[in-house]
Description:
The protein has 337 residues and is mainly alpha-helical. The chain is 62% helix and 1% strand. The chain has a two-stranded parallel sheet with strand order 1-2. The radius of gyration is 21 Å and the shape is globular. It starts with a helix and ends in a 9-residue tail after the last helix.
Amino acid sequence: MGATAKVMLEQADQSGGMLAEQADQGTLPAVDGHWRRFFRFTFTFALILIGAEAVLYAAGWVQDEVGYGLLAMDISLSWAGLAAALTNGLLSFAGLVALFAFFEWKQLGFDDFRTRYSEGLLYGGTAILIAIVLQTAAFTALSEYEITPLLKAEAVGPLLVVFPIIYMLVIGFFEYWLHRALHDIPVLWRLHAIHHQIENMNAARSYSHWAQDALYLAVITIPLVFLIEGPQNYIALLTTIYLVSNYYMHSDNPALSFPPFLRHILADNIYHHYHHSRRIEHWGRNYCSFFSFYDRLFGTQHMPENEVFHPTGIDEYRPLEGWWDYLVRPFTRDPAR
């Protein structure tokens, strides 16, 4: 995937340059720069989605092999399932970070992998591990109650065609308000500040504190299980897009940013960097993690006026000092110091 993608990107660059040269010479109609950027963005993002699907498919295959292998060794179903889920989660995380690292290195020429990615891999991997353990425990406990969801995906009739969009709109709405609560409620800000203290963000440095992920599980993931039964068959592609979007929004690769007009509908990496910006005029803005129009609807939008990735982090907030500090910082007396 990596070598093929690199060749395809180089061919796209060469083709774009040839078209521009021919247009200047009058041998082709002038191609608007915005459209060239749109086509390049579409092509690049298509490669990322294809790569992400491949990563998730491979992680799913390994998960099955681990799970069935452990069952064959007479390991209990609960422990085999947990081990398989952990395998899937950690492999998916590492694979998606590696995918974005390729595009970030291709465009920006970074050559120090350890400095750029090791911290994010450590903290992000820890958060995923804890989240999977908590989620497995929660769903194991809930399964004993034989809960019947209020709605089956098949029951929506003709709306099944647009069900994936409706599902994502609902998640986007609740995530917007939970994100605002993380900023506005002091006890929740202690958790969320771990995410905002990150400087020089990239796909690996998109981690949150593990307790914040547990909050998302309790407030969004589990309630959706009570509301809707088995939507996975209908939202497979959108699930991939949504999963990839978290890594994408924290990428600092300008070649992956949206054409400006798309930001009125969807949040991109530049749009989200404004949310992390140190500049006072950007504070409390751009909460959306997928659909940007919720910010506009609720009065918190700051539409980027340029393609600049502003410096991120929190002034006077002590950077994390290691793995243990990541685990316990929000629960200390003065987490900022």
